[in-house]
Request: fold
Amino acid sequence: MITKPQVTKTQATDLKVKMFRGFSDSSRLSILNVLRDGPKKVNEIVEATGLTQSNVSNHLSCLRCCDLVVRQQQGRFVYYQLSDARIVKLLDLADELLADVALGVDSCTRYDVKDSDQTV
Reply:
């Protein structure tokens, strides 16, 4: 039996903050949203998001490093997909919640979308 390491509440909070950084960048979130529909090749992600190939590749690398996305080689093609079906559930729940709180989020002056976008 594999046992999971014990983490303190502070460590757990820090890990959640770090995980949500994967979702907080507009480019990474666009990629995750595209992958909701299933595995895609880089060129399909580029086409769906409007991002450059280089940008998509950099963000996919970040998402893979955090275990949010996995890649699978099929012949000469590489497909990327979400690493866990619960990511779709999380994105769906965010959509549902946002439908109810969008006005408050939009009018919030404490943080801005520009503040959360970071380079990889």
In short: The mean pLDDT is 90. The longest helix spans residues 86-107. The longest strand covers residues 69-74. Helices lie at 9-24, 26-35, 42-49, 53-65, 86-107, 113-116.
